[in-house]
Design a protein that fits this description.
This protein has 454 residues and is of the alpha/beta class. It contains 13 helices and 22 strands. It folds into 3 domains: 213 residues, FAD/NAD(P)-binding domain (3-Layer(bba) Sandwich), CATH 3.50.50.60; 110 residues, FAD/NAD(P)-binding domain (3-Layer(bba) Sandwich); 107 residues, Enolase-like, domain 1, CATH 3.30.390. Helix 3 runs antiparallel to helix 4.
Amino acid sequence: MKKYDVIIIGFGKGGKTLAGKFASEGKKVALIEKDEKMYGGTCINVGCIPSKSLVNSSQVPHSHSRRSFRDMTTFYKDSIEEKEKLVTMLRNKNYYKLHDMKLVDVIHGEASFLSTHEVQVVMSEEPLELEAEQIIINTGATPVILPIKGIPGNPFVYTSASLMDCSTLPKHLVIVGGGYIGLEFASIYNGLGSEVTVLQNEDMLILREDRDMAAAIQESLEAKGVIFKLGAQIHSIDAEKDFAVVSYAWDRREHKLPGEAILLATGRKPNIEGLHLENAGIKTTARGAIEVNDKLQTNIPNIWAIGDVNGGLQFTYISLDDSRIVWSALHNQDYDRQLRKAVPYSVFLSPSFSRVGLNEDEARNGGYDFRVVKMPAAAIPKAQVLGKTTGLLKAIIDNKTDKILGCMLFCEESHEMINIVKLALDMDMPYQMLRDQVFTHPTMSEALNDLFSL
């Protein structure tokens, strides 16, 4: 039994950050990762970094005359290779940053609990048994695979991760799911030259957003050629020789839709499989996440769970902030989830959609007396300069306090702009602070002057 001060299961953003910090204060750390292609976590390897590389590539063709599909297949293959070079560089950088620390052992193997302080690691050689005073679970999330006939073993069915490893551009991409991941990939592959059809079982897209914002996003993608089938009920996905056929019911009729690639974009769930949490008595929620308190401590006092596995928001920056919470708890400090305040997020469409705070329904359900202000992206001078005028900006303002309750930006560079609004929310600033802020010109951010003047 090899002893450590801290065992961290999973090489994600929060786990790797804590490993380095613990080592810097003289603690011996075991960092366990079962997949050699996941050093650095989901974001670097199969999430935001590779997908944003493809987002960038997908916007290049639109600066030239429309290329043929044959030309686009070559461009796509080059884009995948460029993405892979970027990911490999970042993965290696993350690995060696910790591997080269004397007090950190990076162990390649699959971890499972033996007890509240003991972990077994199954490796290519004989299993290791490790013991530590503190154990941190950082195993992330995994795609939800719906029980649809024909999916198991189907070579034309992909998750978002596996599709980004495919070097052949599908002529027709069928996306199952109209959430954030599905829409982002619809935008990417439409820009890269694929025909894209989105099948959504609900009658609406992105259910957690206001209908006007969802409609603006749908209209933008439809204008580029993306086809949406809302309320589609999928029966099977059958493999043929060179493509798959999706059988589904829509508009009171049965349909068959061929596609060279079928992307399952139906969400992600906490990755707890194989951990044998029961051996340590660790409780989980009804949704399969590890149950934690506001300090991210499980029901077992010496075990914490951070990142996607604890059922919170699935963003790499939340995993990073989770590491701050655990560090605070272990150093008798006060920071916890209740103090996190507003969490912004962005969906990298073209243009991007970003949001922070409450939407209209949430403000209404919260009993607020509020007003809504909106403006079209076309009213922004910088948008006109860029020739990218699609979009809608919207904010929710508390009538009693003048505080900003929420903001939704569907426009170019919204992923940068939203951080300004997030800071205003965190600082409890009245909306007039953004209305009267002096911004450089011409910039997209100066649109906040106009939005909050309405």
